[in-house]
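#lab-general

N.A. 3:47 PM
ok so I finally got the sequence cleaned up, no stray characters, all 186 residues accounted for. can someone with queue access submit it? mine expired

B.Y. 3:52 PM
send it over

N.A. 3:53 PM
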Amino acid sequence: MSTIFKTVDASRISISQLMQPSNSNFNGKIHGGYILNLMDQIAFACASKHSENYCVTASVNTVDFLNPIEIGDLVTMKASINFVGKTSMVVGIRVESENIRTGEIKHCNSSYFTMVAKDENGKSIAVPGLILNDEQEVKRFLKAIKRNETEIQRRTEFNDVNFTLDDYLKDLEPYNVKIQLPGNYS
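B.Y. 4:20 PM
back already:
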């Protein structure tokens, strides 16, 4: 059986939506949870388009709200597949807001959603490979590999049966934290 490959452009998606007062928080800015909901929707659409299957969100890596979004702004989200594994895909999402009166565009967020393709029985299913057509696409793929390696290393380090808190207490000294543990810890 030959492996199917698709270009990044084949599943690239962009959506725009006008921000309404009903989506604002108590400070008059658009609620972060609403933006996350839209991001999850575009991640689903992008991953489903690439895999041609139903997809579920497995994880979200780094959601930093860089700039507030105002009521009346036009929010545009751009999504593309940055990485594929066997059954999973990393969808890169860029969120921008545009003041439609002034034309000012602000970068509000970039995030990475890991999505897993599922068959009709809910079992994970293989996804097509990815054709990388330019240096930016190769860099995004490599960055996804590095993020995954870092997460695995962190999980391994702190979940290891040989983890010793004493080895890390000095690392906490420059931080605004007071440690009050029972036993022999100072």
